[in-house]
Structures are given as C-alpha cells and as structure tokens.
Amino acid sequence: MSFYQVGKRSEHHNKASKLNIGQMLDLTLFSAYYLSLSLSRTQVKVEVFTVIHKKILLLLSLFQKNTSLVQSATATQAD
After folding, report:
1. Distance separating alpha carbons of residues 76 and 79, to the nearest angstrom
2. Is 57 among the domain residues?
3. How many other CB atoms are found less than 10 A from the CB of residue 6?
4. What is the DSSP letter of 26?
5. Would residue 47 count as lying in a domain?
6. Domain assignment of residue 70, yes or no
7. Range of the domain at 70
8. Per the structure, how many domains does the chain have?
9. Is this structure's pTM higher than 0.85?
10. Please, are residues 13 and 34 in contact by the beta-carbon 8 Å criterion?
C-alpha cells in the first residue's frame, strides 16, 4: 500500500468517525429516552438522567471551548 493510499484511508476514517455536536446530543438524548423506557425504578431513572445531563453539559462546554479557540486563532491570523 502506498503512502498516498494510507493517507486517503486515514482521511476517510477521520471523516466517518467525527460526529458533530448535534449528532452527539441526539444520540445521548435517544439513549436516555430508551433507558428510561427500560428501567422501572424511579431512583435509577434519576441517576441515569443525572449522569446523562452531566455528559451533555460537558459536551457543550467542550464545544464552546473549541469554538472560542477557533475564533481566537482566526482573529490572530487576520492580524
């Protein structure tokens, strides 16, 4: 396999493995809904939603940090 083919394969894999923030939130919320249907005890549901809520907040904070980093890098390049 040539270097070019390896690079193309890696590039395709990176595109396929990246989810945007909306897709991640959709998957997380769908998982939460599915778990809530399958669980019968209220306490377990509350614990699961608490964990999922914390994960969503973490994803949003990471997204905001990445956005601010991109904006600052773009502003630096413009100067």
Report:
1. 5
2. yes
3. 10
4. H
5. yes
6. yes
7. 20-78
8. 1
9. no
10. no
